[in-house]
Amino acid sequence: MRRIRIVVAYDGTNYCGWQIQPNGITIEEILNRQISKLTGEDIRIIGASRTDSGVHALGNVAVFDTESRIPGDRFAYALNQKMPEDIVIVRSDEVQIDWHPRYQNEISKTYEYHIYNAKVRNPLKNRYSTFVSFDLDVEKMRQGAKYILGEHDFASFCNVRTNTKDTVRTVHEITIKEIPMDKFQASNWGQENSNLENEKEIVIRVTGNGFLYNMVRIIAGTLIRVGRGFYEPEKIRDILEAKEHTSEGITAPPNGLVLVSIDYPL
Fold it and tell me: Which residues participate in catalysis according to the annotation?
């Protein structure tokens, strides 16, 4: 028996998240089915991160056990011949039979949340960013984000359905980047006479040792409220210190969220 690790990228728009459920197609279901067809075995993968419905990934990680003789690094090529267009196996390799994608020391996960900040909705950005038509003060958002850094009890930044009792997590890095709409994009979108400084994409990038259910989306939603002026940056500190999920934080939509990578110690 061998254990194969795969790195998976996917557009989550058409799926009900990662984990198998009775009421919709999921990423895990597709992977189980196609790997089973390839190997002729009944395969059940183990994933590192159970992303929600509509959330995307560039680097989710999973493993499966097989007696197939296909070389570890060739599984990616073989499986991509069978995958739907919105799921890609980025790479594959063979790992120790007891290697587990969730139970490793010093795991680091990076997520990005994408906001399209403009006066008019762009339909080409709907799948991968959340549209906000109101002006956002990015500098205030950065000030608020500083309170997220470090080790905290993030009970106030997780969904009430979170099962885990340990809500302490460490955020190693959080950055907020502005990407202005360039003149080429503006011209094609009929915005030649608009103020280009107000047309931009805002990317919140967060790296930590783990994240609670909906944690990144609640961080993003709360920072959006700071950017709109509903909260002062210090409100982030107050919500953290409350250590309970309340209506103070708002969960941003799933389409703006991307699991960028999961990194393990060498």
Answer: 52
